[in-house]
Amino acid sequence: MDILITEAFDDPAIDRLDEDHDVVREPAAFKDPARLKALIADARTIIVRNQTQLTAEILEAAPRLIGIGRMGVGLDNIDVAKASELGIAVVAPLDANSTSVAEMTLALMLGLARKIAESDRKTRAGGWDRKGGTGVELAGKTLAICGFGRIGRKVAKLARAFGMRIVVSDPFVEADSPALAEFDAELCGTLVDALAQADYISAHSPLTPETKHMFNAESFAATKPGAFFINTSRGGIVDEGALAEALQSGHLGGAGLDVREKEPPGEPGALEALDNVIVLPHVGGWTKEALSRTHSAVAEDLDSLLKGGSAKNFVNQKSPTRQAL
Q: N or C: which end of the chain has fewer CB within 10 A?
């Protein structure tokens, strides 16, 4: 087969691949590693979102694979190092949904600041609690952006429009970075330094062994009392138990979570029980515009790879080195 699709996609750009290629759709294959391993053995390319786990073992079982199309920006479900070792191009249009995720970040900040979800629930139940709905403004507040990549910088641009002060925590950003100057942002020496100043904290870090649970009991204890925490990046960077405790104690003023450590998280737990928490089903990048850009970019790149060309949105190499069988 030319293309294996292991999750559900509904987009004209993906459908058009059938015109030139042998496409096999098994949207539930990600749930069964054995089935995935059997299918990928015959695939030249594969399209996944975030649920299909392309481990080293799975990739080694795919001798014909020349390309992986990732619908989204997170790469923690793909062993990119192994793919590179095997000569498999990994395609991910990293900027396709950055505007949508940045806008969702501001939506969560505003929702928490003005108690929108909480007031909506009370009013739908017949209440009219204006005093209880008293919120705070974003203007004049300090926002700590943890991870100053594509999305973090777009969040900074939007936040500056609201009159916010920006502080940044990112070990890969230099003090003389033009991006800091562009948004009049201050680079902090450590994550704790940033958290201690912030009225709002927005996480934009990838999930790696180094960032797993970077937001934990210690880091939450370092936050400014009453601060709001927003995560639209990866759930695994947060110790959810520690977050729940910081919220229950009143140390944190609220949290907006578009991502969770386990997705879906299962039965409602401590976080879902709190009125000052907004929980969403990982839809930050799910706008019509972002999905269209992402699907089109991946479809075009895989079509090019299958026809002997290179990919525009590669994250590890321009073109496959493995012989296409």
A: C
85 is catalytic: no
Tokens of 316: 């590890």
Provide φ and ψ at 282, rounded to 5°: 55, 60
Does the annotation mark 153 as catalytic? no
pLDDT tens digits, 44-73: 999 999 899 999 999 999 999 999 999 988
**Among 153, 165, 282, 295, the one annotated catalytic:** 282
How far apart, in Å, are the Cα atoms of 151 and each of 49, 73, 96, 109, 276? 19, 10, 10, 15, 25
Distance separating alpha carbons of residues 114 and 119, to the nearest angstrom: 9
* Catalytic-labelled residue, pool 234, 260, 293, 295: 234
Query: How many Å apart are CA 233 and CA 285, to the nearest integer?
Result: 10
> Is residue 282 flagged as an active site residue?
yes
Q: For residue 193, give Cα distances in angstroms to 21, 89, 169, 200.
A: 53, 39, 8, 14
CA Rg, the chain, in Å? 21
β-sheet bridge partners, residue 3: 23, 45
Query: In this structure, what DSSP letter does residue 73 have?
Result: S
User: DSSP of 281-312, one letter per residue?
Assistant: -S-TT-SHHHHHHHHHHHHHHHHHHHTT---S
What would the pLDDT profile of 184-240 be if each residue is shown by its tens digit?
999 999 999 999 999 999 999 999 999 999 999 999 999 999 999 999 999 999 999
87: three-class secondary structure by DSSP: coil
Set 26, 103, 245, 263: catalytic member: 263
Report the alpha-carbon distance of residue 5 to residue 40 in Å, rounded: 10
Length reported for the chain: 325
pTM of the model: 0.89
